[in-house]
């Protein structure tokens, strides 16, 4: 475990009033014109033309796999249209979200498989050999996923160069903290350009925060939207005041997308929220949306058992060599056992290779060990940098103490300390702790902010899926050799 530093929030937390606000469809609103000098410059709405072309053209590689006598252009055209329709129903053309390269693979391939199943049941293609059909479906899936990945990569790059301007709406202290976080993570693709506060009369603050104007009226917010081309509203806390409800409805009518961020979440949602991933570690959803996400643990446990068992067998020679080298250098006691806090606050004994010998049990429980301790040997430094000292935790995963993916476990002393400092920290224990996690693949390892780690960990739990676990494992494997350990 390496040292972690706490990065304080730009301001204290301000609890939002209870309640919720849903934004009606803009088309049903009657919003009067506001008196502004100059012309309203509206950014063009993003259209998913490239995604349509990619999904429609992905059928062409599949057509090349099919023997020429069986190529029926009308059938293939209907297949392409059917897949486009299925993707539209699955909101795969929602341009307000830019998913990762791996995130869409299951849903895209699933709908292509459904389209082919329907075609095979109703067309002459059912006479094709099974091997040809499998190859055609695979070519179709590969072309669609590769094309969509390229489109999303272009959009990610464009957002990094020109982030989407946004207004942060809510209690000033919370809006300030969220804006500061977004400014610290420019790669998220959203850039706050103003704070719309609903409690200035309480805080008595009318100045600028973080170089951002603090707006208090509909007129000011509308002017900021025009001047900056704002097309996103980020609501933090609950918008219950009448003037803020009018503001949100008005800006939504002018084309703004309204997202709610869980800046001060009461973790453990009841499943009725339709979440759309995370933004800089904040779980987000579109206001007014319904539906839910069903979470289960059976598939996650099966994945843990299969992968941890296989990796223990494959890594056995490496474990043996590491143990022998440590024993030859420092004598017996190469396995380090330490109490950590797991799911639901239950303690367990975590295993690691011993790379540092603390002076006492009290030091082991309360001292941060750092990856560049001067009293460690070069081999121990190497094990820390490459995380070889963490391989024994595969046994914890196999036993069920931990999971491959989840929040990193911590010692009881620091769990108590961080729980007092960060309100969301105890909620990390709703799920089994893990060897790697969403925070780690976003670079939050080593000497990084505990506040940011906590936010990413809870966003991971709120948006959990088995596929997200697989994506995190793939990204972890790509980052396996890194400058410092976790």
**Biggest beta sheet attributes:** 7 strands, mixed
Order of helices and strands: HHHHHEHEHEHEHEEEHEEHHHEHEHHH
Strand arrangement, major sheet = 3-2-1-4-5-7-6
The amount of helix comes to 40-55%
Strand fraction: 5-15%
Distance between the termini: 6 Å
Number of helices: 17
Global shape: flat
Low-confidence regions: 1-45, 201-207, 239-243, 268-274, 288-294
Query: What is the CA-based Rg, rounded?
Result: 26 Å
The overall strand count is 11
Q: Structural class, judged by helices and strands? A: alpha/beta
**For the residues shown, what is the average pLDDT?**
76
Number of structurally distinct domains? 3
Short description:
With 486 residues, the protein is an alpha/beta fold.
Characterization of this structure:
The protein is of the alpha/beta class and 486 residues long. It has 3 domains: 49-159, no CATH class; 164-286, Rossmann fold (3-Layer(aba) Sandwich), CATH 3.40.50.720; 298-478, no CATH class. Helix content is 45%, strand content 12%. It has 17 helices and 11 strands. It has helices at residues 49-57, 59-65, 73-89, 105-122, 130-161, 172-184, 200-203, 218-228, 242-253, 298-330, 361-366, 378-386, 393-399, 412-421, 438-441, 450-462, 466-478, and strands spanning 164-170, 190-197, 214-215, 232-236, 257-261, 275-279, 282-286, 335-341, 347-353, 403-405, 434-436. The strands form 3 sheets. A 7-stranded mixed sheet has the order 3-2-1-4-5-7-6, sandwiched between helices. Helix 1 (49-57) packs across helix 3, helix 3 (73-89) packs across helix 4 (105-122) and helix 4 (105-122) packs antiparallel against helix 5. The N and C termini lie close together (6 Å). Mean pLDDT is 76; it is low at 1-45, 201-207, 239-243, 268-274 and 288-294.
């Amino acid at each position: 475990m390496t040292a972690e530093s706490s990065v304080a929030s730009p301001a204290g937390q301000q609890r939002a009033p209870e309640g919720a606000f849903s934004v009606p469809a803009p088309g049903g609103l009657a919003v009067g014109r506001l008196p502004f000098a100059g012309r309203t410059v509206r950014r063009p709405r993003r259209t998913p033309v490239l995604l349509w072309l990619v999904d429609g053209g992905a059928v062409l590689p599949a057509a090349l796999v099919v023997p020429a006598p069986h190529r029926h252009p009308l059938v293939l055209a209907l297949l392409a249209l059917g897949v486009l329709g299925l993707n539209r129903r699955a909101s795969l053309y929602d341009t307000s979200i830019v998913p990762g390269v791996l995130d869409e693979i299951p849903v895209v391939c699933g709908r292509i498989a459904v389209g082919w199943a329907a075609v095979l049941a109703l067309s002459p293609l059912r006479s094709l050999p099974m091997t040809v059909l499998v190859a055609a479906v695979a070519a179709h899936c590969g072309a669609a996923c590769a094309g969509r990945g390229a489109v999303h990569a272009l959009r990610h790059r464009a957002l990094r160069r020109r982030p989407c301007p946004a207004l942060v709406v809510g209690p000033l202290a919370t809006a300030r903290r969220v804006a500061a976080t977004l400014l610290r993570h420019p790669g998220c693709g959203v850039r706050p350009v103003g704070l719309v506060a609903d409690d200035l009369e309480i805080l008595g603050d009318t100045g600028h925060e973080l170089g951002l104007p603090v707006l208090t009226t509909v007129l000011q917010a509308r002017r900021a939207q025009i001047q900056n081309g704002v097309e996103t509203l980020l609501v933090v806390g609950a918008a219950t005041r009448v003037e803020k409800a009018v503001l949100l409805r008005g800006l939504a009518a002018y084309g703004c997308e309204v997202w709610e961020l869980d800046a001060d979440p009461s973790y453990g949602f009841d499943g009725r929220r339709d979440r759309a991933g995370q933004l800089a570690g904040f779980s987000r959803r579109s206001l007014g949306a319904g539906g839910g996400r069903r979470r289960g643990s059976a598939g996650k446990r099966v994945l843990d058992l299969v992968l941890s068992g296989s990796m223990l067998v494959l890594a056995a020679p490496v474990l043996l060599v590491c143990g022998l080298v440590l024993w030859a250098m420092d004598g017996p006691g190469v396995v380090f056992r330490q109490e950590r806090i797991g799911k639901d606050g239950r303690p367990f004994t975590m295993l690691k290779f011993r790379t540092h010998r603390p002076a006492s049990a009290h030091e082991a429980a309360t001292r941060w060990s750092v990856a560049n301790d001067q009293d460690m040997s070069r081999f121990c430094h190497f094990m820390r940098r490459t995380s070889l000292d963490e391989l024994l935790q595969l046994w914890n995963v196999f036993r069920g103490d931990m999971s491959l993916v989840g929040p990193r476990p911590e010692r009881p002393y620091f769990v108590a300390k961080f729980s007092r400092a960060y309100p969301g920290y105890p909620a990390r224990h709703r799920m089994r702790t893990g060897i790697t996690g969403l925070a780690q693949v976003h670079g939050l390892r080593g000497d990084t902010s505990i506040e940011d780690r906590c936010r990413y960990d809870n966003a991971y739990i709120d948006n959990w899926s088995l596929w997200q676990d697989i994506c995190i494992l793939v990204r972890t494997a790509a980052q396996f050799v890194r400058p410092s350990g976790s």
